[in-house]
Amino acid sequence: MKNKKPSIYIKNIIFPCLIFSLITGAFTSFIILAFKAASGYVMEWSEEVYALLRAHPVFLPAALLIIAAIAFLSRYFYRFFPDSQGGGIPTAIAILRGIVTFRWLRNLIGVFTASLITFFLGIPLGNEGPCVQMGTAVGRGAVRIFGRKNRAWDRYVMTGGSCAGFAVATGAPISGIFFAIEEAHQRLSPMIIMVASSTVMFANLFTQGFAGLFGVSTSLIGEVETLPLALKEQWIPALIGILVGLFSVGFLFLNKLIVKLVSGPLKRLDIAGKMLIVLVLTLGFGMLSYSFLGTGHHQVESAIRGDTVVYLSVFILLFRAVLTLFANNSGATGGLFIPILALGALFSSLIGKALLAMGLSETYYSTIVLLGIAACLSGTIKSPITAIVFAMEALSLSNNITAIILSVTLSFMITELFGAHSINESVIKTRAARLNRGKETVTYDAFVKVSEKSFVIGKAIRDIFWPNNLFVLSIKHSHNRPEVNEHGDKSIRAGDILHVRFATCDYERTADELAALVGNNDWQAQKADSV
Hints:
Elements: H1 6-55, H2 60-80, H3 88-96, H4 104-121, H5 128-146, H6 154-170, H7 173-184, H8 190-214, H9 235-263, H10 271-286, H11 297-305, H12 310-330, H13 337-357, H14 365-381, H15 384-394, H16 401-417, H17 423-435, E1 442-449, E2 470-476, E3 483-484, E4 497-504, H18 507-518, E5 526-527
Antiparallel strand pairs: 1-4, 1-5, 2-3, 2-4
């Protein structure tokens, strides 16, 4: 807190942070618990409907007509709720980084509604992604309603909301905090830690009170009995890490193929046509078994118990991998987090059964599956620290810390060796390219003066959520020479001159976001090639 008066620090940072966090955490907790309760009922109805269709195939033509109507109506639904398309976590990250914009209330309603439709139809997408996205929307709503004069807090409070959504959805509050640091913003700063931690704290407190009211569980899969692995048994997590890492590379390569399919041969199809393909495939395999469908929760639980036979596990694994990625890239609303955990559980269950067949004791089986889930999370989402924390917090593996680190690290290293990119980053890149198609990106230079009482005063440059693709090249205090911002630790004062460079295809939007931070729009930018 060097060069900052405690009273100013409390008034301008601590107090608004706690107020916004309290509001966002409370409302996010309430909405997510209501969503979890509603989605639980919807999934039960979905399973019953598919059981009815399998028992009475005479209703199949009617089911085909219904899904054709839903596919047709999706064209108009997503036209009115455009931000509710696709994976919830990649969309939330893109919003938090300032890559895309959205209307918070419309997004909240659209994601809530579309996700329940997804779950009822049995499309293999999860509910944690929509929870993160709805938490993000609640964060923006909190600023727009309760802090209209504090627009600069927007992305900070949304970050807290997204972390709270993740924490309430998975029952893993510490992992929710790491989500902001490692996944959403990929950097560490005091502001991010304060907002993420305080919002998750309040959300967790309210969840403990609200959970009984809605009758929902606060944990993801419940407590599982696991066996601590001795030093001589560390070859097991090493093997899991390598094999799951290779599986992750294959999964990420499959995503590339599906992106090319959707943007290539199927490019002429609008969302209604793509949704029809998704729904027909879902209905067809649902007629075989509901194990192919759903969010993935029951596949995780079944894999941990070892209920599914090997040949069916392979079949389910392949189908869910293809349809989950196709549905996500086609625009269906839902998350990738739980489906990825389900794929990790199915694949590691095959590893476990193979090892049991080779003479390994059955007491190791559940530990193998859970380590495989953590390794898959690390390999596909490329967030190893979050995967380690999540494994200890939500997967009952706190007694196997060395094994977790070993399997997660090796899986991450394998994907790095093959140059595979995070599934979330791939989705964000594809979405940004689609949104900016046909627009020219121009690089600008500007010298911006910081106004009195602006948001950035007293904060380090690294703590500021600058507009997307904007960098502070140097800072000039008073009559001093400009100083290069090497580590981002320079504290900003009133009257400072910031030399910024930014690349944008929407100059007005970037200028407006920057003005909200520095309190000054009386500046002109020049194209970088003319400076």
